[in-house]
């Protein structure tokens, strides 16, 4: 028995309109757009085959567990890939990234990553890594409107407001930009140290260091800002020392 023809939804028929069927040209266009990603799949296959040749057991070992010693909190910038910068293989670094490497106590995503890394994975080092030339930091410094992300960048603007005198004394805009990238890292390190997650870990005697680094796109080098902290009592001391060093620096990065 023939099936009755399925009618268009009443909302269309009420206005005398039937939605057009996809044209062959539209189908071809969609297929072509999907094929644009084929090179990524080919890259993935080539990468996995190369890794297997180098270490036949790599993926079988990786699939059973991860035991990273490091949590990397960095910027989402595509030029700042965590594993490549410190030459670590998959499974060796736990990574969280957002615009301008911000750590705030209302961000459940970031806090959940820190909690899992510290309490479950038992990482020994939390690395807060900014980078010179950060677009989010520059937008904050120049008060450039970006849209919805302005609400997020506001956290960096708070850092700029706090250190207004330091930035003013730094010199021209490129140097101010570099200094704010560094100052932002310092403040985010303090925010990490102030989380109950990190404080509780220190109180129970867990080995855990929080560090502040900044990465240079110009030479691919990471620089330690002197914010390596393994107990709450050191936070203010290390912060003051790192801040004094930044205030005295006039170099462009």
UniProtKB/TrEMBL annotation:
Binds 1 zinc ion per subunit. It comes from the Bacteria. The keyword Transmembrane does not apply. Keywords: Lyase, Metal-binding, Zinc. It is an enzyme of class 4 (lyase). InterPro entries: Carbonic_anhydrase (IPR001765), Carbonic_anhydrase_CS (IPR015892), Carbonic_anhydrase_sf (IPR036874). GO terms for biological process: carbon utilization. Zn(2+) binds at residues 75, 77, 131, 134. Its cofactor is Zn(2+). CDD domains: beta_CA_cladeA. Its EC number is 4.2.1.1. It holds the Pfam family Pro_CA. It catalyses: hydrogencarbonate + H(+) = CO2 + H2O. Reversible hydration of carbon dioxide. NCBIfam families: PRK10437.1. This is Carbonic anhydrase.
